[in-house]
Every structure is written in C-alpha cells, then in structure tokens.
C-alpha cells in the first residue's frame, strides 16, 4: 500500500512539473517549481513512512495472539456462596486440599488413563455413543498396592460453568470454577465398562512427588472452567482452547513427561471437544466495562438477552425449549457471546456452527 501511495504521488508530481513547464517559458521558473514539489514529495514520503511505522506498531500492540492464552491467577478465589453443585457435591470422598500423597524416591507407580461416558450414573453408555467422555487419571503404588484416582472437573456442574445465572436484579453470576479431586481407589468396573482403563507409564516416587507439586500449582492458578473450543473452521485456526477434564489430563501427562515419565507410545487416546466455529472474535470487555458503562447499553442488553435462554433453574421441559430457541437464534443471527478469561467476546459464528469432535492426542514423547 505505501509503495502504491508513493508511486502515485510521484506520478502526479511529475505531471505537475510537466504542466508547469508548459505554462511557464523560463527554465528557471520550471526548476524552482519542480524543486518545490520535490521538497513536498520528501515530506509526503516521511509522513507515509511514519504512518506505516505507526500502523505497524499498532498492529504489533493490538493484534491478539491466537489462540488467546488462558489466564492463570495468583491464587484461587473463594467460590461464590450463591453457586451450588446440586445433587452431587464436588469431590465428596476426596482428600482435603494440599494433602497429595508422597512416596520414597525409588518407589514404583503405574499411571493409567481413565475414560467414561459423561453422566454415566444417570444415562449409562448413552453419551459414550456420541464420544462425550469424561477423562481422569489413576495411579497404582506397587509397594503398598494402594490405588488412587485424580480428575479435574467443575465445582458446580457443567451447565453452570458454561452459562451464567441471571439474578432478579439483572446481574449475571458465573459459577465456573473447576478443580482437581484426588480420592482413594480406582473403580475398575466404572472405567472399563463403557470407557477406558489403560496403563500408559511407570514412574518412580521422585517423579510423582514433583508431579504432586505441579498439581498443587496448577490447581491454584488454573481456576476457571472453559467448555468451548473455538475455531474458524473444522481443523482450522484456533481462537480459544478449552480448559476442562480432558485438557487437564493432557497437561498432567505433559508435566509427568517433563519430570521423567516415559510413556507407552502404543497407547492411543482420543479426547472430546465441544467446538464453536466463528470468524475472528471481537473483545467486548469485562463485566464492569460493559454493564457499568452507559455507552455500552446495547452490548449489555444483547448479552443478557442471549443468556436468558440458558438458565438452568428452569424445569427440564422449559430448559429444553429454551435451548432449542437459543440455538435457533444463534444460527439465525450468527452470534454467540463467549465468556473467557472473565471477559465477554462476540463470536460471529459460521457454518457448521457447532459440533463435537473426538480427537487423538499422542502421549508425550522424549
């Protein structure tokens, strides 16, 4: 573009010089006019170069890097007392916080990948037929024979992590924390019946103890559950990555690998993703900048109107009706409001809009 502007300006100036030369017979006058125009040209080139530099710097500053990095916190905030897990509380038989097992350096532990259909306790294998799977990890301590399970999931159930609650005051409340849960035993029947129980590695006590430290750090800083993976098209550019049970297992395997675990590469594992397809996302802002700013009344109205169809406190028939209506509106309006890193983003969705994928992710290699 800048080359085009400079070339066009030069052409105009040359034409201007020729015209002045025809208009004024004395050569001295022609030289003066053309010299004057050349000085102007130098100034224009300086302006164009400066503008180009400024635009380049602006792009470097304001052009976000994709996928948008997940924002870790310095510490885990207290969960809002308004938020409730419902029928099954979070981690009912789990260990208290900061009580990870510790082993002797030369102990041996087997590491297992665990998978089962989501909500298997309620629907059996139904969701497994659509590859909607929950992921976890298991450990077997060879010296003692003890088993224990680790998983990362939502504190207040999946729907509450995905959509906010609208209070009578109109305020939106998000119940979207997730956390690690560790409890004794491995329920082999549960994991084997409709899912996976696969040994993926053997590690020593030192590796596990380092992994335990990583788990504490990850659980303190990686707080908020993110349901959606957002891409421009299937297999295309990723705008946002999910942060849920499957991504936690992948992070955990990576951490084990960094600390010395060697994985059985003959084991192949797939993970569920809930995908939205969108054009480049538009950052709207956080709750304060949107809902407390009179200039953003329309955004505030549109966001609240969008989420009204995703209220979990409705009866099941009402909720299903609302969800059908909501997704019809998403497809017709081609708009979806995403909450990520405690900020609202506008997604201009495009075909195929939504889908579920079950993608293979290799185990870490040395």
UniProtKB/TrEMBL annotation:
<keyword id="KW-1133">Transmembrane helix</keyword>
<protein>
    <recommendedName>
        <fullName>Bis(monoacylglycero)phosphate synthase CLN5</fullName>
    </recommendedName>
</protein>
<comment type="function">
    <text>Exhibits palmitoyl protein thioesterase (S-depalmitoylation) activity in vitro and most likely plays a role in protein S-depalmitoylation.</text>
</comment>
<dbReference type="Pfam" id="PF15014">
    <property type="entry name" value="CLN5"/>
</dbReference>
<keyword id="KW-0472">Membrane</keyword>
<comment type="function">
    <text>Catalyzes the synthesis of bis(monoacylglycero)phosphate (BMP) via transacylation of 2 molecules of lysophosphatidylglycerol (LPG). BMP also known as lysobisphosphatidic acid plays a key role in the formation of intraluminal vesicles and in maintaining intracellular cholesterol homeostasis. Can use only LPG as the exclusive lysophospholipid acyl donor for base exchange and displays BMP synthase activity towards various LPGs (LPG 14:0, LPG 16:0, LPG 18:0, LPG 18:1) with a higher preference for longer chain lengths.</text>
</comment>
<keyword id="KW-0325">Glycoprotein</keyword>
<keyword id="KW-0812">Transmembrane</keyword>
<comment type="similarity">
    <text>Belongs to the CLN5 family.</text>
</comment>
<dbReference type="GO" id="GO:0008474">
    <property type="term" value="F:palmitoyl-(protein) hydrolase activity"/>
</dbReference>
<feature type="transmembrane region" description="Helical">
    <location>
        <begin position="42"/>
        <end position="62"/>
    </location>
</feature>
<dbReference type="InterPro" id="IPR026138">
    <property type="entry name" value="CLN5"/>
</dbReference>
């Amino acid at each position: 573009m800048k080359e085009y502007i400079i070339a066009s300006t030069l052409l105009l100036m040359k034409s201007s010089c020729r015209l002045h030369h025809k208009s004024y017979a004395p050569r001295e006058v022609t030289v003066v006019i053309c010299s004057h125009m050349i000085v102007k040209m130098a100034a224009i080139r300086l302006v164009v170069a400066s503008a180009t530099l400024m635009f380049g710097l602006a792009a470097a500053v304001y052009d976000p890097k994709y996928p948008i990095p997940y924002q870790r916190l310095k510490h885990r905030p207290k969960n809002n007392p308004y938020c409730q897990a419902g029928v099954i509380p979070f981690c009912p038989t789990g260990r208290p916080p900061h009580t990870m097992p510790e082993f002797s350096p030369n102990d041996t532990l087997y590491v297992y990948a665990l998978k089962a259909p989501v909500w298997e306790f309620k629907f059996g294998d139904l969701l497994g037929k659509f590859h909607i799977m929950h992921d976890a990890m298991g450990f077997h301590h060879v010296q003692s024979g003890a088993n224990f399970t680790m998983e990362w999931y939502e504190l207040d159930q999946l729907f509450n992590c995905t959509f906010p609650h609208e209070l009578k005051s109109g305020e939106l409340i998000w119940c979207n924390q997730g956390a690690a849960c560790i409890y004794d035993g491995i329920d082999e029947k549960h994991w084997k019946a409709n899912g996976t129980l696969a040994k993926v590695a053997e590690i020593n006590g030192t590796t596990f103890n380092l992994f335990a430290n990583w788990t504490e750090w990850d659980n303190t800083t990686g707080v908020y559950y993110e349901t959606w993976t957002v891409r421009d098209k299937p297999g295309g550019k990723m705008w946002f990555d999910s942060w849920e049970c499957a991504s936690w297992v992948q992070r955990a395997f990576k951490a084990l690998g960094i600390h010395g675990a060697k994985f059985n590469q003959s084991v192949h594992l797939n993970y569920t993703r809930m995908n939205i397809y969108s054009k480049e996302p538009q950052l709207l802002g956080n709750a304060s900048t949107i809902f407390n700013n009179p200039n953003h009344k329309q955004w505030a109205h549109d966001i609240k109107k969008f989420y009204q169809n995703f209220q979990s406190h409705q009866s099941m028939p009402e909720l299903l009706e609302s969800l059908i209506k909501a997704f019809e509106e998403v497809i017709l309006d081609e708009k979806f409001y995403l909450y990520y890193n405690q900020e609202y983003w506008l997604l201009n969705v495009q075909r195929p809009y939504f889908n579920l994928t079950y993608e293979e992710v290799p185990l870490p290699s040395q």
